[in-house]
Amino acid sequence: MTSLPPRAGRRCHNAVNPLHSTVYFSPDLAKELAGVGIADPNAAYFASRGAAMGAVGAGTITATFYNFNHELVARHVPGVWQSATPDEVLQARLRAVDSTLRRLLGEDAVGSPEMVEAAGLALRATEACTRHSRPLYAAHADLPVPTEPHLAYWHAATLLREHRGDAHLTALLAAGLDPLEALVSHTATGKGTALRWVLATRGWTRTEWDAAVERLRTRGLLDADGKLTEAGTQLRRDLETETDRLDAAPYEHLGAEGVARLTELAGGFLMTAFAAGAFPGDLIG
Fold first, then answer.
1. Does the residue 280 lie in any domain?
2. Range of the domain at 119
3. How far apart (Å, rounded) are the C-alpha atoms in residues 268 and 170?
4. Angstrom distance (rounded) from CA 151 to CA 97
5. Are 27 and 282 spatial neighbours (Cβ–Cβ below 8 Å)?
6. Which of 28, 114, 134, 199 could pair with 96 as two cysteines, CB 3.0-4.6 Å apart?
7. Is residue 1 part of a domain?
8. What does the alpha-carbon distance between residue 263 and residue 9 come to, in Å, rounded to a whole number?
9. How far apart are CA 284 and CA 52, in angstroms?
10. How many domains does the chain have?
């Protein structure tokens, strides 16, 4: 097997993962979930991402999602399962994925040979994913692979996303970053979710955010202006390197040529989705 160039797996993930995430910002998901009785945006997110695990309680969602305030989760879970069963949510989510990708990418791209190729490559990469200590990945891995190529591609992107995400939580724990410290330090890189979006969606208050900033300053990871110090920058770099190590198997299995091709295809789809307004303009920063 040809060895991969440095960070090739991470670059591939960064191209594949966002297309999975488009559904969470899509009005189609809100419409489909409202149709099964889930209208609150927070409840919709917890249900749509967590449904693969079954009708779990708030503790499981908080543990596996990591950076949400448990009080926010507990306001919606497990009550959300009284509105719709996990299977109903999964079916609604897949309908939303279908309409979202058709709208963002266009019918030509959805039905293209490139989509078929991307789905095949992404699914091949998932053959080397492992379930142990990866609850969100393992739950999604038990779901059937959709037959239509664009849905199969989204499914594979979901598996690759959650496989890396579960690994990243292991790295965060080892680094001693609690949920809010993880968000603060990521936002400080300039590549994380903007503060306004964190406070609006994760259930934390500005007071709690500021307290996390102070804890990171005490550790020497942030400076007086809230920017990453050299130590903080190194910590974030080390987190990504360790996540790369824990998530290497799918990309090593796919091989250098396959990874490069999947990155190229995924990047093209992603640019089309961005141009179609898949994400809010102020989401990152």
1. no
2. 10-275
3. 31
4. 7
5. no
6. 28
7. no
8. 9
9. 28
10. 1
206's tokens: 């500005």
Map the chain to HEC letters. Answer: CCCCCCCHHHHHHHHHHHHHHHHHHCHHHHHHHHCCCCCCHHHHHHHHHHHHHCCCCHHHHHHHHCCCCHHHHHHHCCCHHHHCCHHHHHHHHHHHHHHHHHHHHCHHHHCCHHHHHHHHHHHHHHCCCCCCCCHHHHHHHCCCCCCCHHHHHHHHHHHHHHHHHHHHHHHHHHHCCCHHHHHHHHHHCCCCECHHHHHHHCCCCHHHHHHHHHHHHHCCCECCCCCECHHHHHHHHHHHHHHHHHCCHHHHHHHHHHHHHHHHHHHHHHHHHHHCCCCCCCCEC
| Residue type at position 268 | G
pLDDT in the model for residue 1? 46
What letter represents residue 214's amino acid?
A: E
In a domain, 149, yes or no: yes
> Do 90 and 193 touch, CB atoms closer than 8 A?
no
71-110 tens-digit pLDDT: 999 999 999 999 999 999 999 999 999 999 999 999 999 9
**pLDDT (tens digit per residue) in 168-189:** 999 999 999 999 999 999 999 9
* Distances, alpha carbon 90 to alpha carbons 29, 86, 94, in Å: 11, 6, 6
The reported pLDDT for the residue numbered 2 is 55
